[in-house]
Structures are given as C-alpha cells and as structure tokens.
C-alpha cells in the first residue's frame, strides 16, 4: 500500500454511474486498488443506515480516514442541507448565475471505463493527475445530485475536502488519538458528533487597505504591494483560504494568534493595514460563509502604531506620519546625483519614500504621463456582501422552481457555492484581461492588477468598446446578474489625462456604489446599472443632430440649470425632438440630468 | 447633550487636502471639524466652538470644478508654475454645532469664511439656523464627517467598529503654527447619532 492518502480523490465513484455506497460494485472487486487513497474512498462515510436504506460497506478505522470523513462532511455540509421534498436527481451542475450553461452528464457508465478508472486509481495518482484526466467530469458532475442541491461541482467539493483535511491533519490544536477510534460504526459516528462539537475553528474575513494617496506612477507601487500581500498570504496558508479578491480574503484556521501575527507582519512589511472580522465556533455550527453571521463575531483593526500627535511637516502622500524625507532631493542623494528634476519638492515619510523609490513596472503608463496622453482606468470590483445576498436570492428562486413550497431559509449559501463562484469569477477576469489585450493591443494596455487596468485612449469612443466588452462577458459568465439593478460585480471606468492624480480616480472607483460608473474627469459622472447597459449602448446608436447636443454641452459649462431649461424647452422644435429622442432612451435608466449631460459629452467626442 | 444645526451655502468652496498631485490641488468633499470650528472661533472671537459639517450629496449641489491659476511671488514679481485647483461650486451642506457656552446667542444667520483661496473669492459661506437636535440616539452606520479622536465623546460616538484614521490640523493658540492630531475620517464604521452618518 502506498504511503499517502490524497483526500481530494475520496469521491471516486461519483465519477461513475455506480451507486456511491458501493451497492453495485461487486463485479469490480477484482479491480479495487490497494492504496491508502482507496481506503479513504471506501471508509470516508460513517452513517448508521435508516430503515430501508442501504448501508455503506465501511467506516473510518484510523486517524487518516476519520479526518477525511470529518473534512468531507464539513465540505459537503456547506451545500448538502436537508430538504423535505423528493424529486428527480440531477447529476449535472446548475450554475445559479449562469443557468444557460448546460452541462452534459459525462459520468463513466461502461464497465471498461470504470475499470480504467480503477486501474488509474491503482497507480496512486495525485489530484493533479486526476484533474488532468477527468477534469471534464469533475466540473460537470454535481457534488450532490438531489433536487435543488446540484449547485456546486464535484471539483469544488474535492478541493474543499482536501483543504479541510490538511488543516485538521496538521493542526496542533485539534487532537485525535488512534485509540479514540473504535471498530464499530456506532462508536465512529459518536466520535464524529463529539469532534464536530469539540473542535472549534475560526472563520475570518480580512480586508486590506492603504493610507497612501498615489499621484505619481511610482506611487502606484502600493498596488503591487497589495497584490504581493494577498499572494504571500495565499502561499503561506494555501489550504486555509476559501475566497480571495484583490483586497479581501475569507479564511478559516485553528489558531488566531499565530495566523494573525503572520498576516500582521506581512501587511506591515508591505505598508498596509487591515480589518478582520472573525468568529470562533464549533465545526458543526459554521455554515454561512460570513463571520458576521456567526454568534460572538468580533472585529479588529490592525493599523501600524499611530501617534496621537504629529508635528509638521506631515507626509504629503499618506498624511499619517512625520515627513522626514524630501523628494526628489533625498532620492538623488542616495546615488550621489545632484538634483536635476524641474518638478517641485515633496515632503514624504519613510514608508511613502520607499514605495516611491521602488522601480515601477508600469513603464507604459510612465511614458503616457510624460506625453500627457489620455487614459481610461478600468476597475472591476466584487462586492462580497452583495454577492452572498444575490446568490441567496438566486438559490431561493431555483429551489422554488423545483418545489413551490421551498422556504427562504432553505436557500442558505455555503462555502462551496462561494468557491464555485470564485472559479468562474477568476476565469471571467482572465477573459476580460485577454480581450482588452486583443481590443486595445499590448502597447496601449497596462495591467495594474487582475481587476485594475489602464488603457491609452484616443477618445471617449473607447468607453463604448469597454461597455460592449462588459456586456458580452457578463452575458457569457453571469447572465443572471444582468437582470439585477444592483449586482455584485461593479464596473468603474474613468477617463482622464494620464497626468491627472490617480488618487482622485481611486477615490471615485473605490467608493463606487452603483454597478456601472463612468467618470469623465472634469466633465461629469454617469451612475447607472449593468441592467441598463443594453439601453445605454442602444442610446448611442440613435440618430441625433450634433448641433443640438453641442448647444446643450456648451450651455451646461456655464450653468447646468440653464441647460436643463434648454433641454425641456419646446420652443426650438428641432432641438427638442433630439432631446426627446434621447430622453426616451435614458430616462428609464433613472439617469438624472447631470448624467444625461455627461452622456451627451460622451457622444459629442 | 444637544446640537444646533445650521444650513451652509456658498458659491464656491475650496478646502484643500494636504496631498497635492504636483501641480494639482484636490479638495475635500466634507467639512472637517478643524475647518468649521476654526471658522466659527474666528468669526465670534472664541476658542471653544466644537462643530462638524457635511456636504449634500444631491447631484445639483457641490459640483466639482477646476480653476487654473498662477501664484505670484510678491518679492520677485515672478509667476510660479500654474496650479490646477479642484473646488466645489453651488455648495450646500449642514453644520452641527455642539451646544456649549461658545454657542450661546448665535444669530439666525451669519457669514463665515471657510477654506482656502479666500483672496480669489472662495469660501464665503452663509449659515442659516435650521433646528436644534436633541435626539442623539446612536446607531451603527458609516461616518460622514472628520473629527479628532479626542472629540468622539462630544459627538456621542459610542463605538468605533472599523476606523478610517487620518490627521487633522490643530492650531496652537496665539501662534501661526499647530500640530496634526489623530482623527476619525469619513468611511469609518461607528455607532454614532444618525446625523453624523451617511444616509
């Protein structure tokens, strides 16, 4: 028998049409592998059968299989909650955000295919090997085929089981001696119940921020530090992370102090602060993917030490520390160079000085700034709280389709669903990035983060290219979100000169509350919803006389009130017809007059 | 504990952020404790006014505008590099003054000067009495103002759940200088009276 149990591989029979409880496995007994992973496949259930139910052939008999059983229950418990109705099983995944993505039932049916799978398991494959060979089944097969529960894939379930297993296995806090494990199923079941109550884990949501107000290209290095922070944490705690965006992490762990000390040290070395909301509960109580929903949740804010008073001068970038460096004098002094800059001097603290001193990888943006080109900033933001609420509503709708008597409380969102979503969201970001590269070309695109882009632009017309691109991708990946007036994925586009201080753009983008925001620096803002992206694009294709819009745009520069009077003035019939035409397209979106004028400026370009 | 609410109106207002984008001077989109308390102290010759302010978010008010001007060195008579200044026009906001000895006998309407570029005509504000606020029941929400941490009890801020820290300038009396004191900025998650929170 091999030495290692690969937890992810525990649900082997779900790749086939065989019963999960081995009741029709007898004819393949000769092909059963002799590995520890296979022992996990057989022994990861511990269920005392109810009357009339077929029993599982085995139960956990050692520490490894017992931990696998707990991990499997913890991972599946997130999506496998009881429902009081029966119906036809569905073995393919139903994506709540993308129901039109129909998966085929690709499970292995033929005896020879199943024998091939068993032979593959006999070679003691890794999880990577399994994914390489059977990924098509893993992503299409629902983890749970019961009606209304087929919302997560087997792949997601396997990944989560692996994560939980390793955290339990290497924990110094969760104790399980071999002597505690008895040989009968009843005692094994009792032990499961006891450990699920006894073992308490922490669920935490961390949000990273920075105090810097970046205004030069090199100040954007702080965004690299943000990226490095999340990636360092990911490397250090690969099994603990359940969800991650560019500045947020949802994770679980057993020892708060040890984990927080490490994260604090990473954040501090990257000049970031963070807030953490966490709760410690027994395994059996942790179900929702939000620590705030658990009893006893607490919030901590991990800032670097802040003095009560700072004597002038204060740092001009972060405004959080005494300035003891002068830019660029002190920077040049490091290289024994005399100052050659024609720009003014700035008082910076040590941290901001170090960030600015780092060479910037944004070389194209630097060139565009020197040439004073126009740029488009594009930020894609995922609102986690909105995401959980949206998924809950979509799940409720789905349950009701299967069973009109389903209750709202049945539609609980579990980690597996969030993890399932994360995989599609990451694929979506990658696709957006690739398509931006195709549409604008490498020379005009700077990828600042995986959800923040800077594009050299020739004019406002590129904003429409971006809108078309979003419309297309939202339709492919998350069509259900397009029906919402306030969805969890937010697009922020800002047009400005490359020289325009980034912190002004960042302030707008990071505080974005609507799901589609278009900022034309110095010219106005459009706030609307992705739901109306079609209408917005349709409105651009209307036939309007340019002169009518030119008049309105020019008047608005003097007085927006006067422009509004002109907009509603029927005395100039020809202009009024154009305005009415535009109103018909834009007013249903709830756009105010300021938004309409901004839109006119967009069209004027 | 009670507060007096005044409405604030101005044609144009520039309350500068300390950071500057080289030749760009941004402005704050709120009225910090330091600015409004200082303006009231100057107006009425006192030193113990405690007040904060917020700007209305209705789209017709507080429009962002830009002014380009070239400051001139009076000694040499030479103009410096032109600066682009961000300012607010058609300003409308509300000011909440803590009721204490300093706030006794405030007029129904008065004029104060707030922010920078006063010599260019910015910052002339009209304060008009609106109402007295006695309901200061705290609730959880997102803070909409900037005030020094030491003044949190004055404004009945009971708990700071998720702070956004920053520093506000505090002048040293009878000098032309001052210090920066640790403060709570807009965006903090707090338990505070409703009028201090975002709607």
Domain module count of chain B: 1
- Low-pLDDT stretches of chain B are none
CATH fold description of chain B: Alpha-Beta Plaits
Q: What portion of the residues of chain B fall into strands of 2 or more residues? A: over 45%
Instruction: Give, in order, the helices and strands of chain B.
Output: EEHEEEEEEEEEEEEE
| Overall average pLDDT of chain B | 89
Our count of domains of chain A comes out at 4
Cross-sheet strand order for the largest sheet of chain A? 10-11-9-12-13-14
Mean pLDDT across the residues of chain A is: 88
- The tally of strands of chain A reads 14
The gross shape of chain A turns out to be globular
Instruction: Give the number of helices of chain B.
Output: 1
CATH architecture label of chain B: 2-Layer Sandwich
Rg of chain B computed from alpha carbons, rounded to a whole number of angstroms? 17 Å
CATH class of chain B: Alpha Beta
Cα distance spanning the termini of chain A? 71 Å
Structure description:
The complex is a heterodimer of chains A (605) and B (199). Chain A has 20 helices and 14 strands. By secondary structure, chain A is an alpha+beta fold. In chain A, the strands form three sheets. In chain A, strands 10-11-9-12-13-14 form a six-stranded mixed beta sheet, sandwiched between helices. In chain A, helix 15 (502-510) links the parallel strand 12 (489-497) and strand 13. In chain A, helix 13 packs antiparallel against helix 14 (461-477), helix 17 (546-558) packs antiparallel against helix 18 and helix 17 packs across helix 20. Chain A is globular, with a radius of gyration of 29 Å. Chain A starts with 35 loop residues before the first helix and ends with a helix. Chain B is mostly beta strands. Chain B has one domain (3-196): Alpha-Beta Plaits. Chain B is built from one helix and 15 strands; from the N terminus they run E-E-H-E-E-E-E-E-E-E-E-E-E-E-E-E. In chain B, strand 13 and strand 14 (178-184) form a beta hairpin. The two termini of chain B are 22 Å apart. The mean pLDDT of chain B is 89. Chains A and B meet through strand 6 and helix 20 of A and strand 4, strand 13 and strand 14 of B. Strand 6 (309-310) of chain A pairs antiparallel with strand 14 of chain B.
């Amino acid at each position: 028998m091999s030495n290692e149990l690969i937890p992810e591989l525990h649900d082997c029979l779900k790749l086939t049409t065989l019963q999960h409880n081995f009741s029709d496995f007898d004819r393949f007994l000769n092909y059963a592998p002799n590995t520890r992973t296979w022992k996990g496949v057989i022994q990861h259930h511990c269920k005392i059968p109810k009357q009339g139910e077929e029993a599982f052939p085995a139960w956990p008999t050692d520490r490894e299989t017992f931990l696998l059983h707990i991990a499997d229950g913890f991972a599946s418990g997130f999506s496998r909650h009881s429902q009081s109705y029966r119906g036809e099983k569905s073995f393919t995944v139903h994506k709540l955000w993308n129901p039109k993505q129909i998966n085929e039932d690709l499970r292995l049916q033929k005896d020879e295919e199943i024998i091939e799978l068993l032979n593959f398991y006999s070679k003691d494959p890794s999880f990577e090997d399994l994914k390489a060979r059977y990924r098509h089944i893993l992503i299409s097969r629902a983890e749970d085929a019961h009606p209304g529960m087929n919302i997560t894939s087997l792949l997601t379930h396997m990944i989560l089981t692996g994560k939980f297993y390793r955290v339990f296995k290497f924990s110094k806090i969760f104790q399980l001696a071999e002597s505690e494990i008895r040989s009968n199923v009843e005692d094994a079941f009792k032990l499961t119940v006891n450990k699920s109550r006894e073992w308490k884990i922490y669920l935490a949501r961390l949000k990273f921020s920075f105090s810097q107000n970046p205004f030069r290209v090199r100040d954007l290095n702080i965004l690299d530090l943000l990226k490095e922070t999340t990636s360092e944490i990911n490397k250090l705690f690969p099994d603990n992370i359940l969800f991650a965006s560019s500045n947020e992490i949802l994770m679980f762990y057993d020892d708060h102090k040890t984990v927080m000390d490490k994260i604090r040290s990473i954040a501090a070395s990257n000049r970031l602060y963070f807030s953490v909301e966490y709760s410690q509960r027994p395994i059996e109580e942790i179900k929702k993917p939000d620590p705030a929903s658990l009893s006893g949740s607490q919030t901590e804010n991990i800032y670097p030490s802040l003095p009560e008073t700072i004597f002038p001068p204060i740092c001009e970038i972060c405004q959080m520390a005494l300035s003891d460096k002068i830019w660029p004098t002190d920077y040049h002094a490091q290289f024994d160079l005399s100052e050659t800059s024609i720009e003014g001097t700035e008082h910076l603290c040590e941290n901001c000085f170090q960030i600015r001193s780092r060479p910037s990888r944004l070389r194209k943006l630097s060139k565009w700034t020197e040439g004073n080109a126009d740029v488009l900033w594009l930020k894609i933001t995922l609102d986690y709280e909105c995401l959980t609420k949206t998924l809950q509503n979509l799940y409720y709708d789905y349950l009701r389709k299967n069973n009109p008597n389903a209750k709202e409380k049945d539609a609980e969102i579990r980690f597996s669903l969030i993890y399932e979503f994360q995989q599609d969201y990451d694929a979506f970001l990658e696709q957006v990035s690739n398509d931006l590269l195709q549409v604008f070309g490498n020379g005009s695109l700077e990828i600042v983060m995986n959800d923040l882009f800077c594009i050299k632009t020739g004019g406002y017309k590129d904003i429409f290219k971006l809108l078309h691109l979003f419309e297309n991708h939202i339709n492919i990946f998350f069509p259900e979100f397009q029906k919402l007036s306030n969805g969890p994925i937010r697009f922020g586009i800002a047009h400005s000169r490359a020289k325009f201080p980034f912190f002004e753009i960042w302030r707008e983008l990071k505080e974005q509350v609507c799901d589609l925001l278009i900022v034309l620096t110095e010219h106005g803002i459009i706030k609307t919803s992705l739901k109306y992206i079609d209408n917005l694009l349709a409105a651009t294709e209307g036939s309007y006389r340019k002169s009518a819009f030119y008049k309105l745009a020019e008047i608005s520069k003097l007085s927006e009130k006067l422009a509004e009077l002109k907009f509603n003035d029927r005395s100039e019939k020809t202009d009024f017809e154009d305005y009415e035409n535009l109103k018909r397209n834009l007013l249903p979106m709830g756009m105010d007059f300021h938004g309409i004028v901004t839109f006119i400026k967009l069209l004027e370009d | 504990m009670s507060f007096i609410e005044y409405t604030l109106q101005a044609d144009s207002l520039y309350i500068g952020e300390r950071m500057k984008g080289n030749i760009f001077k941004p402005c704050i989109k709120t009225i910090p404790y330091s600015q409004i308390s200082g303006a009231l102290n100057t107006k009425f010759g006192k030193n113990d006014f405690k007040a904060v302010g917020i700007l209305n978010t209705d789209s017709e008010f507080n429009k962002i505008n830009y002014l380009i001007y070239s400051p001139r060195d009076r000694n040499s008579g030479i103009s410096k590099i032109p600066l682009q200044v961000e300012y607010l026009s058609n300003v409308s906001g509300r000011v909440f003054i803590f009721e204490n000895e300093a706030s006794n006998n405030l007029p129904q309407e008065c004029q104060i000067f707030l922010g920078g570029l006063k010599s260019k005509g910015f910052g002339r504000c009209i304060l008009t009495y609106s109402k007295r606020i006695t309901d200061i029941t705290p609730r959880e929400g997102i803070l909409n103002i900037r005030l020094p941490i030491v003044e949190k009890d004055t404004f009945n801020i009971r708990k700071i759940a998720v702070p956004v820290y920053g520093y506000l300038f505090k002048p040293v009396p009878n000098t032309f200088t001052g210090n920066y004191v640790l403060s709570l900025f807009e965006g903090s998650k707090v338990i505070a009276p409703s009028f201090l929170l975002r709607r």
